[in-house]
Write a structure and sequence with these properties.
Blueprint lengths: L1 E6 L5 E4 L6 E3 L26 H10 L3 E4 L23 E3 L4 E3 L5 H10 L3 E6 L6 H12 L5 H8 L10 E4 L14 H18 L4 E4 L12 H10 L5 E8 L6 H5 L1 H23 L6 E9 L4 H4 L6 E2 L10 H16 L4 E6 L9 E4 L2 E4 L3 H10 L3 E3 L2 E3 L2 E4 L2 E4 L1 E8 L4 E8 L6 E6 L7 E9 L18 E2 L3 E4 L2 E6 L3 E8 L1
Parallel strand pairs: 1-22, 3-4, 3-13, 4-7, 6-12, 7-8, 8-9, 9-10, 10-11, 11-13
Antiparallel strand pairs: 1-17, 2-16, 5-6, 14-15, 16-20, 18-19, 20-21, 21-27, 22-26, 23-24, 23-27, 25-26
This protein binds alpha-L-arabinofuranose.
């Protein structure tokens, strides 16, 4: 059996986990909003039209933040269309997804929904077809108490108290030629600087995310980050990263190695942030917001057949399989391993659109990727320990990929250490040993394993429980050492408590 030696030390810390790295994303896209979280008239919805079944699952996940309203959608969005009396709200073309937006759900509904979902908003503004004047107006509407045009407009809409939204994205993927209002790095950097400055004048307590590259393979990657930050370093707090992986080539070993690429992406962007910091002789560090990440490819062919200009069509409805859940697990581990600098991240997205949660008119079900996300949200809190994994590697299109991805998180208050580990070996179990003599008396109190014989197994409405976690029986502490068998192709969570 292959061996993995996992080394931790209670004094060698990566950093405190910022809960917001377990965030997610809801875009006005397909059935994410309409039919996903909002379906007035449905017996499954509450008096405001919010789907109670999706709300329950989102509360179970404990999603800390939800990015809204886009995505590509936001780059031509007029938020004013979605506030005030519903019968006066315009129907608009959404060129980003070639659909019709009815505007029956908007900013205030989102804030009401977020309260019920026990989550915080991460609001994106339109810097595609709009500019810094609009940035000022939306923050005035949301965060100013009263006595000005937009704050009083909000009050006239029934929201006496300000929403006090703390986290804002300055546009979306502005480097992408597909983006409405796509810009050069200089154009965007200047705009982000102006918009950020005016927003912080209105509310100095807000935190701002500037757009980094929409992927590491964009031709402008690197220079984009540098140029944008040269313009707006002083105004912003985070730089964004986006990535989606696919297994179009049906090469599972390469696919599962994608976390190597994600890790390199994070390190590269950090180097650029720190280089600009040095050039500018700045004290402040720019941290990262990995505000779109997931697997996305299953629905691509289906999406080409969707009737253009329809309302809430089935778009980006990837049906996830077991190997996707393994990669999502590895991506969560990668984010945790960078907890010192990755402070925000959003699994894209949350409901129906490349999502862990699916709905139809009669109920909800959990996709395979729901489970690693659930475990990380619920058990990934505390301080990340530097976790060295000494194990065999295999050759992949990203270079050497370790068979085991792992990270340990210590929760001092509850006296727990949680080890998250993925075994990417498709055929063989791996024996993992972790010396825990520093944690005398700690025992295994929980061991969850997600595995399946079929990498392509899916959870569907008809068969919702094909891929579900089970309790593992192969993890124990012996003479100060955690000894665990990580089954071939598996996501594992082992909780030790002292
Ligand atoms: O999440 C789907 C889309 O992916 C988003 O709208 C966009 O930002 C990205 O390209």
């Amino acid at each position: 059996m292959k061996q993995a030696k996992i080394c931790i030390d209670r004094d060698f810390l990566v950093g405190q986990v910022d809960k917001r790295i377990f965030g997610s994303f809801l875009e006005h896209l397909g059935r994410a909003i309409y039919g996903g979280i909002y379906q007035p008239g449905s017996p499954l919805s509450d008096e405001q039209g919010f789907r109670k079944d999706t709300l329950d699952l989102i509360k179970q996940l404990q999603v800390p933040i939800v990015r809204y309203p886009g995505g590509n959608f936001v780059s031509d969005y007029h938020w004013e269309d979605g506030v005030g009396p519903k019968d006066l709200r315009p129907r608009r073309l959404d060129p980003a997804w070639t659909t019709i937006e009815t505007n029956q759900f908007g900013l205030n509904e989102f804030m009401d929904w977020a309260k019920k979902a026990e989550t915080e908003p991460m609001m994106a503004i339109n810097l595609g077809t709009r500019g810094f004047e609009d940035a000022k107006n939306i923050i005035e509407y949301c965060n100013v108490k009263k006595g000005t045009y937009y704050s009083d407009l909000r009050r006239s809409h029934g929201y006496e108290e300000p929403h006090n939204i703390k986290l804002w994205c300055l546009g979306n993927e502005m480097d992408g030629p597909w983006q409405m209002g796509h810009k050069t790095a200089d154009e965007y950097g200047r705009l982000a600087e102006e918009a950020g400055r005016i927003m912080k004048m209105v509310d100095p307590s807000v935190e701002l995310v500037a757009c980094g590259s929409s992927g590491m393979y964009m031709p402008t990657f690197g220079t984009w980050e540098e140029t944008v930050l040269e313009h707006c370093y002083e105004q912003v707090d985070y730089l964004s990263l986006h990535t989606y992986y696919d297994n179009v080539e049906n090469n599972s070993r390469d696919f599962l190695a994608s976390s190597v690429a994600m890790d390199g992406f994070i390190s590269s962007v950090l180097s650029i942030c720190d280089a600009v910091q040095a050039k500018k002789r700045q004290k402040k560090k720019i941290n990262l917001s990995f505000d779109e990440w997931n697997v996305w490819y299953h629905s691509r062919e289906q999406d080409k057949k969707v009737e253009p200009w329809s309302e809430a069509p089935h778009l980006l409805e990837d049906v996830y399989n077991f190997e996707d859940a393994l990669l999502v697990g590895s991506m969560l581990i990668t984010l945790l391993r960078h907890a010192d600098r990755v402070k925000i991240a959003c699994l894209a997205q949350l409901v129906n659109v490349i999502a862990p949660i699916m709905t139809d008119d009669t109920g909800v079900w959990k996709q395979t990727i729901f489970y690693p996300y659930l475990h990380a949200c619920q058990m990934g809190n505390g301080t990340v320990l530097q976790t060295l994994v000494n194990c065999p590697v295999y050759e992949s299109k990203y270079g050497d990929a370790p068979y085991v991805d792992a990270v340990a998180v210590e929760d001092k208050e509850n006296r727990t250490i949680t080890l998250f580990a993925v075994n990417k070996d498709l055929e063989e179990d791996i024996q993992a040993d972790m010396d825990i003599r520093q944690y005398e008396g700690y025992e295994v109190v929980e061991n969850l394993v997600l595995t399946h014989t079929d990498l392509k197994a899916e959870n569907t409405k008809e068969e919702p429980d094909k891929v579900v976690p089970v309790s593992g029986k192969n993890a124990k502490v012996e003479a100060g050492c955690l000894k665990a068998v990580l089954p071939a192709r598996s996501w594992n969570v082992i909780v030790l408590k002292g």
